[in-house]
Amino acid sequence: MSHVDPCDEPAVGRSAKEVIGPSPLLAIDDEPSPRLIVDAPMPRPLALGKVFIQYRTENIRIVSVFGKGAMDVSPRIGHVHVTVDDLPWHFIDASGETVVLVGLRAGPHTVKIELANPVHQVIASESVHFVVPG
Hints:
Layout (H helix, E strand, L loop, with lengths): L15 H5 L14 E4 L4 H5 L3 E3 L1 E4 L2 E2 L14 E8 L6 E3 L5 E3 L5 E10 L5 E11 L2
Parallel strand pairs: 4-5
Antiparallel strand pairs: 1-3, 2-7, 5-6, 5-8, 8-9
């Protein structure tokens, strides 16, 4: 979901829509495509063997709502799938918050974060590569 940080510039004279974006109470005609932006793991926790990966989305809200009926919601909603080291399974996160992984062995790792719609179809995908220190 596109969002203007109110701290970036003074809100004086700017409308609520300019500061916080469109109302989630009204459908958006011709919604732009959803985007996924994933950061590298935060260095300080990684140095301690903990993986904290921040991500954000644009033009989609991350919420814990699933199923075919949720496909018609506007603005769009979705969640993320998180896969570690190409394992044959993933876990789902619908918090929109930092992904936290602990207990990974020392060495190189890859985490794939996939933006998915309410019926788990992948919309976008980003992978981060990093090394957990020994």
